[in-house]
């Protein structure tokens, strides 16, 4: 089962492009700022397209992050295998996102697939 989330970010200062939310999240989690989430792996956080894989200790599944700078959109796909559901993992990530980066966000959409 999968849950997909899109988080849209406000325009940058002066109307320019904002910094990649994927990069900000990965840097924040690499510093251990939010338990139980951690960055499992990432591909070139400074370039687009890039991705990051987020996991949580003792919770099954993973969240794959992608950033679309032209749309100012972070896409997060929570995936769980072996009969597990990704609801808990996405809830923890969503709580983190609102707590640490909520002032940057304009809207969040969720889809169940």
Quick take:
The chain has 113 residues and is an alpha+beta fold. It has 2 helices and 6 strands.
CATH architecture: 2-Layer Sandwich
- Say what oligomer this is: single chain
Task: Work out the strand percent.
Answer: 35-45%
CATH topology: TATA-Binding Protein
Biggest sheet record: 6 strands, antiparallel
Helix content: 10-25%
Give the strand order of the largest sheet, numbering strands 1, 2, ... along the chain: 2-3-4-5-1-6
The CA-CA distance between the termini, in Å, is 6 Å
Shape: globular
CATH hierarchy, class: Alpha Beta
- The average pLDDT value, as a whole number, equals 87
Number of helices: 2
Topology order in helix (H) and strand (E) letters: EHEEEEHE
- The overall number of domains is 1
Uncertain regions spanning at least 5 consecutive residues: none
Q: Care to count the β-strands? A: 6
Radius of gyration: 13 Å
Class from helix and strand fractions = alpha+beta
């Amino acid at each position: 089962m999968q849950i997909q989330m899109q988080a849209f970010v406000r325009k940058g200062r002066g109307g320019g492009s904002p910094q990649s939310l994927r990069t900000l999240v990965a840097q924040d989690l690499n510093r251990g700022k939010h338990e139980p989430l951690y960055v499992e792996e990432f591909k070139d956080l400074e370039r687009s397209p890039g991705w990051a894989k987020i996991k949580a200790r003792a919770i099954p599944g993973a969240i794959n992050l992608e950033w679309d700078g032209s749309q100012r959109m972070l896409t997060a796909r929570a995936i769980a295998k072996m009969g597990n559901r990704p609801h808990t993992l996405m809830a923890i990530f969503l709580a983190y996102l609102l707590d640490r980066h909520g002032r940057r966000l304009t809207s969040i959409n969720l889809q169940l697939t």
